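Bumping with the actual sequence this time:
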Amino acid sequence: MIPRLEAFIGWRYARTRRAGVAVSFITLASIVGVALGVAAMITILSVMNGFEAELRDRLVSLSAHATVAGGPGDPVQDIARAAAVPGVAGVAPYLERQALLVDGSAMHGAVLRGVDPAYEARVSALADSMVEGSLTELTPGSDAIVLGRVLAFNLGVGIGDAVTVMIPEPAAGAEDLTPRIRSFTVRGIFEVGVQDHDGVLALVDLRDAEAFAGQPRADGLRLRFTDLYQAPRLARQVAAALPGVRRVRDWTEENATYFRAIRLEKTMMTLMLGLVVAVAAFNIVASLVMVVRAKRTDIAILRTLGMRPREVVVVFLVQGLVIGWGGVLAGVGLGLVLSHNAQAILDVLQRLLHFQLFSADVYYVTRIPSIVRRGDVIGIATAAFLLTLLATIYPALRAARTEPAEALRYE
């Protein structure tokens, strides 16, 4: 018997309703379960991809793609050498110190970063993140400072207020630290939407930072690349092009905790939604077992006509795959529709139910970002295909073990 005929019989069995209302209901529930599970996995992973990209963009908006620190080279020549490396889109010098900001009785730890406004726009989106004041207020000798919005709120300061900044300095010939103290005037406030920036970062002009720290030159260079994902490789190339020993850090190291947490959440979410598909696959097993019991006479007749056990297996494998793959394909289609229209669907639900999920007063992200990745869709569909295939094996083998004489004894 040719495989095409076996596939045709399996297709007919998948379409027939003569097996009973219970079998038809379980079959329909299996298809819907697989479809909903696959659609949910695609939609949720796409939304999580969108939030991951949003977080990544916010994290690197002020921290650049990589930093190269140390070495005795001349700053101007270092900038020229770094900019000449293929793939480098921008270079800016920086100086960074741990500091304590004081205003009256309010004190808060911060990271004091000296930047050059002329170069800073090449490596970060600081100018676009200003909510008050301007980055151009940072000029040599002005003692101006720009604070993150959360940091300014914690200190209770605004534009024009004075802030005392203290940084530790090792005392000559002693193990203790003596603080360097200097007063700065708040000339700007920025907001990115990430606590690591808004709550701890304070910016001053690079020349003021060098004078304050008692250091004649910058700590190193902040880099921006044309391809964000090539940062680890390109940062090492830049370090190799500069003289002296260099310490290299890229955005994947600086923000490793965030992205590790996101990967863990995506993995756990995938496992939990995978259980939905697994339950639907068990429904396929139940429905096929019931079909096999209802088709015992048909199987016996086919066996007496010469169909071999392995050909019976193919018949019920085809039937199970039609049910399972139908659900997978429907789920992929539904998942893509939901993923590409997540925000539009949310807008409709908010209007109908009169609520706002992402209030601008509470959240920095007020829309649902969604990024559909082909690899995710293919991986989910393939896993669901394999799961439904496994679910059809036991019923198909059980059908192949049907004895014609026993099945036809009372017919």
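The tokens above came from a reply further down the thread. The radius of gyration is 32 Å.
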